[in-house]
């Protein structure tokens, strides 16, 4: 499935955080958390965003929602009323778009206010977006809780009374409350036990089918993305290094980083043991990224050209005729452009 | 029941028999471990796998006598087979001389979170040398040289410089290597690793696994690895024990348990995770419900209320049954599953 209509279009998005120091708190340097990302999110798809910690995937997710403002580039929202550039809007201007774009956070323990009942947490967005009568809000919150397989009565209880999996479902209910089109799931299942993780994954898929949602699914777990996602973007040091359909990524890996990442994942299948490619060292600091290809100090194929030139993200033809983007100098097939 | 005759096996490093550890809080009792038995062998890795709250970490804490206050080993035995013959750990005083000589020197441990396990006000070198000072007779210079050697063998670059640095200057993966360096400083016979890579990225996790495999091969260290990830089990384990609610529900060589799981919980665990390489159409099946309240456990099989194969017999606790010389399971219906597998 490849619905052609984009809902979001990111062009050359940069998010740089200043590092301040010295007596006068002058800006000394920048953390280049997101460093030039082009990305389209299509209506109705599940886009996976994977990479190691510190690669900028969470910052990119927040930049999509304007929770972190991009320091460069554009984020365009394509709605019924035409295109809107989000990065230039102020808070009041963003208000109608916050309803369309929502987020589920990683940690179900810190993302719910412990002093509010579940109803208190879930009615807030409804009140802001115009549901005036309390009786109606109670009805909607009850319906939402049932939609995430919880009991209506749960709304009058407090977060500490629920387990991690239940709290994560409440977080999903809150994101759904104002009927968004796109939900960013930031490591939404990573903090959960395996048996509970499967329950939440199935819930997310069921909700997607029912409500025609679009997900941007941020995770470090490639096994989950393979199961869940239509397309996958692999990030390294603030850039996308590979982007294509999920099946294509696993069948025909082009970038050496993705190859190493895939081989490092422990697979619960004794018949599928492959060679473990062990990367040397750690992810470099995003304050001083290496020259050339950001991956070259850890890449086992690195050559001179990798040390000097930054590879562009270029399209390659897949066997199925689709598009497979990768940023590497050493791919031995001609790019399609 | 399990075979209670370990015999004079020179490779046996530790045997735990029918261990019961209870934790008390608010006048209630949590039977955190309820009859756990297993062996650890030299040069082998035993993986203990289960969800949070199943008793994996309490098992490790019992072996090292690091249990919290208001908890105690009620029954059973933990026998450490050291160079000087077997020692019953459960009879030693928690902080007595014998226990302190074993803890750290003979049985070492790596903790889950290297940030909280390392002391931020002492240099990494000091924390390694502290172990050598307590447990060996090395002189000051020799200790310093050994600390550098250890860091080098863990793959830390520039060990001469790094040995003087403090934990905050290390990255997560390097901190975990420093932890392993501390644990391995006195050449322990047994290394207990409690979720050593949960806080780390997969590429760093692969580095740590490579290191642990090398230790096992070259020094014959017996490793007990606690994890919740079946992938890690498939990757590293020689033997595996699956725990649920304070009991081992299935244990055996990794090939037998993963290829031919006989307990419904093991099966459910394997079916509940997406496996890389099986594509989008794989079926994953969530385990319904959640683990019971540890202070109010069911009387029969602990897994019964979440189990698809439940029958009336499950209201009673099934015994541990030996299905082959090394494979045992705690389920009333394991014979049917064996017959299914044989078809």
Automatic annotation (TrEMBL), chain A:
Membrane topology according to the record: Peripheral membrane protein
GO biological process: peptide transport; transmembrane transport
Coiled-coil zones: none
PROSITE patterns noted in UniProt: ABC_TRANSPORTER_1, ABC_TRANSPORTER_2
GO molecular function (one): ATP binding
Superkingdom of origin: Bacteria
Keyword Transport: yes
Gene Ontology CC, one term: plasma membrane
Compartments, as annotated in UniProt: Cell inner membrane
Primary localization: membrane
Domain named ABC transporter: residues: 8-262
Pfam family, one: oligo_HPY
CDD domains: ABC_NikE_OppD_transporters
Alphabetically ordered keywords of this record: ATP-binding, Nucleotide-binding, Transport
SUPFAM superfamilies tied to this protein: P-loop containing nucleoside triphosphate hydrolases
Signal peptide bounds: none
Protein name: Oligopeptide ABC transporter ATP-binding protein
TrEMBL record, chain B:
Annotated localization: Cell inner membrane
Biological process, per Gene Ontology: peptide transport; transmembrane transport
Tagged with keyword Membrane: yes
Keywords assigned by UniProt, alphabetized: ATP-binding, Cell inner membrane, Cell membrane, Membrane, Nucleotide-binding, Translocase, Transport
Species this protein is from: Oceanicola granulosus (strain ATCC BAA-861 / DSM 15982 / KCTC 12143 / HTCC2516)
Family: Belongs to the ABC transporter superfamily.
Residue ranges constituting the ABC transporter domain according to the UniProt record: 14-270
PANTHER family per record: ATPASE AAA-TYPE CORE DOMAIN-CONTAINING PROTEIN, OLIGOPEPTIDE TRANSPORT ATP-BINDING PROTEIN APPD
Source superkingdom: Bacteria
GO CC, alphabetical: plasma membrane
Protein name: Oligopeptide ABC transporter, ATP-binding protein
Gene Ontology MF, one: ATP binding
Record's bilayer topology term: Peripheral membrane protein
CDD domains in the cross-refs: ABC_NikE_OppD_transporters (cd03257)
Signal peptide location: none
InterPro entries per record: AAA+_ATPase, ABC_Ni/Peptide_Import, ABC_transporter-like_ATP-bd, ABC_transporter-like_CS, Oligopep_ABC_C, P-loop_NTPase
Coiled coil: none
Main localization, broad class: membrane
